[in-house]
Amino acid sequence: VYITTEEVIKLLNIDRLHGQGITGSGVSVGIVDTGATPLLFNRHPQAGTGIKYIGSYADTNGHGTHVFTIALGRPIEIKRLQNKGVRLSGVAYDSSKKIVTKALSTPAGMGSDASVIEAIESAISAGAEIINLSLGIPTEINKDDDPLVKHIESYSDSNIIFVAAAGNEGFDRLSSPANASNAISIGAYNTFNDRLARFSNKGFTFMMPGVRIFSGIQYATVLDNAGGASPGYAILSGTSMAAPFATGLLALIKQIYKAQGKDLTWRDVIQAGKERGEPWTPDRGYGLLTPDLFL
Predict the structure, then answer these.
(1) Where are the beta strands (DSSP E) in the chain?
(2) If residue 163 lies in a helix (H) or strand (E), which one and from where to where?
């Protein structure tokens, strides 16, 4: 059992924006994660064009490319996949610049505050306007003492939007850096039972589908064909999968705002939730992030 990225796009009514030609054009998106191996990933049908790779050009984990294809992957239809036809699409597949930076360097997808901060800065230097952070660690320390949170909060007055996974520990609190005051934190919604996923941390801004997500992944990585998927694809669960759906949608909304002579900020996103989302609760946030909150 799984849900494809194309099915999620239809569930959230994002396909209506695609039908109007709103596909992320003119918006630069950064994926700060395990990076990618260009020689392998560029061969993937969902990689598409316009990718700017920064940092070490080797990824043995695959997590970051699964995140990439959810947010930015090229639309494809494969007739003989999973013993049936499968349609896949990233949310903002026409993003003008797709920036892939490597912050998590081990085969297990581990990194440090310093490596994440360096990758964030590289993405910003390359022009990223929205940065996806499908990473984090549980934290007991005061966030005022957390170097990664402090770094993200240093951009509070900028127009850069940080989208961060809430964390997968099932805690009543967010992981770092999702607990940064200017981060749009995303919990994992289970489309199969209409509830918050059991593993998702609580206290987030919005929730997005994050259970058994079928999407593309770099070949020959640890997570390649995870969950019973065909090679080059994976079925994965986590707030890591939920966050890039939000990142992609915000790229589409940012495209609309730019066409109107405005710019979307993280404060606009939270205000949309307050005004048109569900009443905030720890286990649903403002509900699902959908185009209807902005249009």
Answers:
(1) 3-4, 28-33, 51-54, 76-81, 84-88, 97-102, 130-133, 161-165, 183-190, 195-196, 206-209, 213-216, 233-236
(2) strand 161-165
**What single letter denotes the amino acid at residue 193?**
N
Q: What is the DSSP string of 215-273?
A: EE--TTSTTTTGGGPPTTEEEE-SHHHHHHHHHHHHHHHHHHHHHTT----HHHHHHHH
- d(CA 290, CA 295) in angstroms, rounded, equals 9
Distance CA 208, CA 271 (A): 18
State which amino acid sits at residue 244: P
Residue 110: DSSP 8-state: -
Q: Nearest 5 degrees, angle CA 212-CA 217-CA 222?
A: 90
pLDDT tens digits along 108-166: 667 788 999 999 999 999 999 999 999 998 877 667 789 999 999 999 999 999 999 99
Neighbours of 78 (CB within 10 A): 16
Amino acid in the structure at residue 170: G
C-alpha span between 95 and 23 (Å, rounded): 7
Q: Which helix (H) or strand (E) holds 85?
A: strand 84-88
Rounded Cα gap, residues 100 and 123, in angstroms: 8
Each residue's pLDDT tens digit, 15-48: 999 999 999 999 999 999 999 999 999 999 999 8
Q: Which among 86, 46, 106, 48 has a CA at the least distance from the CA of 70?
A: 46
What is the per-residue pLDDT across 68-122, written as a single tens digit (0 to 9) for each? Answer: 999 999 999 987 666 677 899 999 999 999 999 998 876 766 778 899 999 999 9
DSSP state of 287: -
Percent of the chain scored above 70 by pLDDT?
Answer: 96
Residue owning tokens 């999968």: 241
pTM for this entry: 0.96
Structure tokens given for 274: 């307050």
- Do the Cβ atoms of 186 and 242 come closer than 8 Å? yes
Average pLDDT over residues 237-249: 98
